[in-house]
Amino acid sequence: MTSTNAVHVLGIGGSLREGSQSERALRIALDGAAEAGVTTELIAGPELVLPFYDTALAERHERAVRLVEAIRRADGIVVVSPGYHGALSGLVKNALDYVEDLRDDARPYLDGRAVGLAAVAFGWQAAVTTLEQLRTITHALRGWATPLGGSINTAETKFDEAGGASDDKTVRTLRLIGSQVAEFARSRAGH
Fold first, then answer.
1. What is the pTM of this model?
2. How many domains is the chain partitioned into structurally?
3. Which helix (H) or strand (E) holds 39?
4. Which of 114, 113, 109, 111 is nearest to 96 (CA)?
5. H helices of the chain, where?
6. Residue 190 pLDDT
7. What is the pLDDT of residue 189?
8. Which of 12, 31, 4, 18 is CA-nearest to residue 174?
9. In the chain, what is the straight-line distance between the N-terminal and C-terminal CA atoms, in Å?
10. DSSP letters for 86-107
């Protein structure tokens, strides 16, 4: 739990393109968390360009240090990955590998944190398989995947620059994922 007792939710994801479809989906989910009364933070796209995770290296790039510290402070996390060839992106996977740096913390890995998940891909197969991989990784890192996850097919749904999407159901789903993370984090905090 954060020391200020304010519940804090971190968003991780997107692609190398700033403002990508997956980053826009992540922002909508974080809006849902914020509407539920928590503070939010975003680490997306270009901020996730990190050296490949290596347990043998003690030194960390400044962006990696920022990511690990943000995860450490977070009471809940939302992860949105693009689906590439039926799998999550290397960018997001490498960022999640850095959670290993929390192994010796009092709250190791993602222990006790709700993790909202969504996958954005051009086609249902990649969206669904990517979401399943995100769930598996979350469980391996001791996180609590929210009951609702999002598989978003961008062949049918387009996100806009104004923070919306062509499909209202997708927006509602993403906001609900963010809200579920916030509510779980708040209940763990006793607020």
1. 0.95
2. 1
3. strand 39-44
4. 109
5. 21-35, 62-73, 90-97, 124-140, 168-189
6. 76
7. 82
8. 31
9. 11
10. TEE-HHHHHHHHGGGGGTTSSS
Distance of CA 78 to the CA centre of its chain: 3
- Which residue is listed with tokens 């003690």? 58
Q: Is 2 contained in some domain?
A: no
> Within a 10 A sphere around the Cβ of 94, how many other Cβ atoms?
16
Residue 165 domain boundaries: 8-190
Coil, helix or strand at residue 40: strand
**CATH number of the domain within which 25 lies:** 3.40.50.360
For residue 8, what are the β-bridge partners?
Answer: 39
Angle, to 10 degrees, between the axis of helix 168-189 and the axis of helix 21-35?
Answer: 50
Tokens representing 159 are 């996100």
pLDDT of residue 3: 44
CA 61 vs. chain centroid, Å, equals: 21
The residues, ordered by sequence, that sit 6+ positions from 142 with a Cβ below 8 Å of its Cβ are: 108, 109, 110, 111, 112
| Domain annotation covers residue 26 | yes
pLDDT of residue 191: 55
Report, as ranges of residue numbers, the positions in the chain whose pLDDT lies below 70.
Answer: 1-5, 191
